[in-house]
Structures are given as structure tokens and as C-alpha cells.
Amino acid sequence: MAVRHLQQASLALSIRPAYAVADFELSEFSTTQKHLTMELVDVLIDIGLSDKESRVYLATLEIGASPASEIAVRSKMNRVSCYDILEKLIKRGFISTYNQNKIKFFNAIDPDEIRNSYRQKYMNLKSALPDLRRLHGKTSHPRVTYYEGLAAIKKIYSDTLTAKSEILNYADSKLIRQHWPNYDDEYVNERVKRKIYLRGIAPKDSHGELVALENKIRHREIRLVTPGEFSFANEINIYDDKVSIISFGSDLLGMIIESHEIADTQRAIFKMAWEFAKLAG
Length: 281
What we know:
It is a single chain. This protein is α+β, with helices and mostly antiparallel strands. The chain has 2 domains: 2-118, Arc Repressor Mutant, subunit A (Orthogonal Bundle), CATH 1.10.10.10; 143-280, Endonuclease Chain A (Endonuclease, Chain A). It has helices spanning 2-14, 31-46, 51-63, 68-74, 79-91, 111-136, 150-160, 173-179, 183-193, 206-213, 260-280, and strands spanning 95-100, 103-108, 143-148, 167-170, 198-203, 220-225, 234-239, 242-248, 252-258. Strand 7 (234-239) and strand 8 form a beta hairpin. Helix 1 (2-14) packs antiparallel against helix 2 and helix 2 (31-46) packs across helix 3. The longest helix is centred in the middle third of the chain and has 26 residues, at 111-136. 26% of the residues are buried.
């Protein structure tokens, strides 16, 4: 984005009229020239300069190499403030300086050179992105969001409705329905409407058998395992790069873990449990 703005500014600045400082001041610019100046100020602000820095750079670019006093007049700024800004612009690579007859002159760096400098900075940032992502933890640390209470837990279920993949599920069929009596109408029907397929493993009890009987119309396949052999105190859903866990203890608690590696590992574990559930069934 910054490079593109520099390209636009470079073109605009390269065709600027070369007016002498004595010809007229900024206040005497035509409406079109004023508009162009404001646009260029916005471009320079967008790449990191302040409003005053932008105006001082543009004034220097317009009048050419000049002492700080002349640039201050052109930019409508007092000499001390203008001098301080010129020194900052030197450090930022927008202004160069030289001495002539014991007078210090300031000269604007060509816009094309600035554009090339920003392009190089962009390329340096691009090449450093893998290392920066590692430092930020993008590849090694999962993002975890916590939820508490029924209203918050419903947000977890809502998130599963964004799944682009099928949902893999471990659940005790009766637990969520005890806390959320309209679960089938409000959630299951919506999942079916969005055509998100679910494969699940549940205890083989009266609730599980009732749920399994509706597999086809509910766009899912539930396999049942002997109750008591496995703990179903928590519900787990695996989808996309996420794993959601809901605890139905004395307090309703839940979390969503976002991690490609963790989701893939949980899918592998589910695959083994799925095959076992087939044998057990």
C-alpha cells in the first residue's frame, strides 16, 4: 500500500510546476494546485510523515535547495520549528543537506528514490515474515477463547455453524438437551439447513438410541458405544482448524481452540475411535 502511494506521489511530484519562492506563496495557489497539495500531504501522512513534516518536504521539493529560513516562509512555519522538522526529515531519508558559503542548504530527496527505499523496506519485511510469525506464535501457540454460561456456550455451537468441513463430535446426547431444551430446533435444524454433516460418537443409552434413529433426516451419523466404558462428561467438536470443548459440570464452561496442528491430531484420534465404535456397534 505504501509503495503504491509513493508511486502515485512520485508521478504527481515529477510534473509539478517549478515556481520560484518569490513568485507567490502557498496561499496564492490556484484551487487545483491547493487540491493537489492536500492530496500529496495525505499520501505522505499515509506513509508515516506528520502533517508538518509533509508540508515542509513538499515546500522543499517545490523551491529546491534552500536555507531553512526560505523553506519556513514557503511552508508558513516559524524558522525554529521548520529547522527541527528538516533535521527529522534528514534522519528519515526525505531531506539531504550541504553547506555553501557558510550557509546550510536543505534539499528534498527525489520522490523516485523514496519510492525505491520504501519498496526495499517492503521486500525486507516480506522476507522476515516467517520469522516474525514464529515470534508472534502464529505457528506454535494455539488461540484459545473461553466461554461461561448457557448464553456463551450457545456461541460455541454458533461457531460450529461456520464450519467448511464436517463436524466430528463426542457427546452425551442428553446433557446439552437438559440445559438447552430447544437444542434440536435452534441448533440441529440450522446445521441441517446449512448442510454441515456431522459424525458423532455417543453412549448407547435411551437418549443415544433415539438420536441415532434420526441420523438420516438430521444429516449425520451417530455411532454408539457401551456407556460407562468412556467418559462423556464433556462434549468435543472438531471442525476446520478448531476444537471446541464444553463441560457440563456444576457450571457450564467451554472453550474454542484454534490450531491446525491440534485439530489434525484430534481428527486422527477421532478416526481411531470411530473405527472402534463401528466394531463395538
